[in-house]
Amino acid sequence: MFERPDFGERAVLVHLEFPTESHSEDPTEFRELVRSANVEPVCTITGSRSQPSPRYFVGEGKMEEIRQAVTDAEADVVLFNHTLSPSQERNLERAFKCRVLDRTGVILDIFAQRARTHEGKLQVELAQLEHMSTRLVRGWTHLERQKGGIGLRGPGETQLETDRRLLRGRIKSINRRLDKVRRQRDQGRRARKRADMPTVSLVGYTNAGKSTLFNRLTESHVFAANQLFATLDPTLRRLELPDLGPMVLADTVGFIRHLPHKLVEAFRATLEETIEASLLVHVIDANDERRDDNIEQVETVLAEIGADEVPVLQVYNKIDCMDGVAPRVERDGEGKPVRAWVSAVSGAGLTELLDAISELLVEDVIHERLRLTPGQGKLRALFYGAGAVVGEQQLDNGDAELEVRMQMRDWNQLLRRAGTGEAEVNRLRLP
Q1: Which of 387, 351, 393 is nearest to 370 (CA)?
Q2: Domain containing residue 371
Q3: Run of H or E residues at 367
Q4: Which residues are documented as binding site?
Q5: 176 part of a folded domain
């Protein structure tokens, strides 16, 4: 979508302060975003307004200041640390005689550069096309409605309408292919459930150190860098845990404040690894000044994708950058691990982290022997459908004794689907 020459681009950045929190953004983080997109920020224009201008987002005086900065710096693009409407983007481009992108456009550009797998490229293209669909303008002004000769006279189709039709067709095609990817991922997850293999998903703010931690724990070589959105494509590795056995560790895309909604929708197939996980390991940059705000932003996105009910272990990473902070595991009033302080770079605290993960997963597993009556056939079918049955024995009176093993969350969901309460399930003592 965004073709860029090899020598990079020069950009003028624009950041305004608003009294309302809905428009609040971090100018330092935006500069890091721009550098992650391989663009050189030549200057930053700042200011404040009570509310955005409907036509240009900025006022007339600020417009002139930006126009002068573009001329003086010979900039190729103006980047706004805000969300612009399609009409505001068009008006600003006409005024500045150069390209104008908002915060969402910059994030989409970074994703387009970082996507490596076929699935990742499809997800990025879908987000770009849906973003672009509201920003189409007629580039072929010399083409009026097409008219032919005799028998072909009529309104015809404008170039703009043709572009929109082609765009809709491409979006439908990508959605069909992503549905196929989603079904394939579902098959993989069902296979892991049948093998009684829990999944732990690393989540967190972008550049919190998830990939570095992933590499340390699994001895892998996933790309990790000190830049925003270094990881786009999810990576899964098998990991042996003490006292538990094998589990699957998933490295996922990082979150950011005001993550574009279209991007969340496009990456839903990838984020389902997070939704279906047995445990979320929330990796936090402990040395970040906006640590608490970043935690809140991640929790907001998790709630948006429906993963807010999955058990969470917070991991405060990068303690090697802090003075007087020792690796440790903090517990709640019931003695459960809730927070671990580690360094993925030095490896400090990783043994304690694995012990905490193992402890939470063991506690989250239901292993029961049940006696079901013939009238509880639906419940029996659901256990088999979930791949939770370890063994079964038929009794002479028609009852069935099932040995089941599954995650606590899946157990609760299954009982709700069967319309059965905990008291109605006849539990037996395991041999």
Answers
A1: 393
A2: 366-428
A3: strand 365-372
A4: 204-211, 229-233, 251-254, 317-320
A5: no
Q: Is there a single domain that holds both residue 420 and residue 394?
A: yes
Does any domain span residue 139?
no
Residue 232 has what pLDDT?
A: 59
What angle separates helix 86-96 from helix 60-73, to the nearest 10 degrees?
A: 50
HEC states along 142-204? CCCCCCCCCCCCCCCCCHHHHHHHHHHHHHHHHHHHHHHHHHHHHHHHHHHHHCCCCEEEEEE
pLDDT at 265: 65
Q: What is the DSSP letter of 352?
A: H
In a domain, 46, yes or no: yes
Q: What pLDDT does 143 receive? A: 45
Q: Residue holding tokens 């405060």?
A: 316
Per the domain annotation, does 117 fall within a domain? Answer: no
pLDDT of residue 282: 93
Same domain, yes or no, for 37 and 50? yes
> In this structure, are residues 377 and 388 in contact, taking their beta carbons and an 8 Å threshold?
no
Nearest residue to 320 (alpha-carbon basis) of 291, 295, 341: 341
Write down the residue that tokens 């955005």 correspond to: 52
Whether residue 246 sits in one domain with residue 333:
yes
Query: Would you state the structure tokens that stand for residue 215, as one six-digit string?
Result: 């590499």
Annotated binding site for Mg(2+): 211, 231
What is the predicted pLDDT for the residue at 284? 93
Q: Into how many domains does the chain fold?
A: 3
Which of 26, 25, 30, 38 is CA-nearest to residue 13? 30
Host H or E run for residue 92: helix 86-96
Q: What is the pLDDT of residues 249-301, one digit of tens each?
A: 888 777 777 666 666 666 665 676 677 788 899 999 999 888 888 898 888 88
What strands, in cross-sheet order, belong to the sheet with 365-372? 389-394, 400-407, 365-372, 426-428
Q: List Cα–Cα distances, 18 to 54, 71, 86, 104, 421, in angstroms.
A: 14, 27, 21, 18, 52
Task: State which of 76, 101, 126 marks the end of a domain.
Answer: 101
pLDDT for 1: 38
In this prediction the pTM is 0.69
Q: Give the annotated binding-site residues for GTP.
A: 204-211, 229-233, 251-254, 317-320
Ranges of residues in the chain whose predicted pLDDT is under 70: 1-8, 21-24, 116, 134-161, 185-196, 222-234, 242-244, 258-270, 272-273, 363-364, 428-431
| Residues 95 and 54 both lie in one domain | yes
CATH number at residue 392: 3.30.70
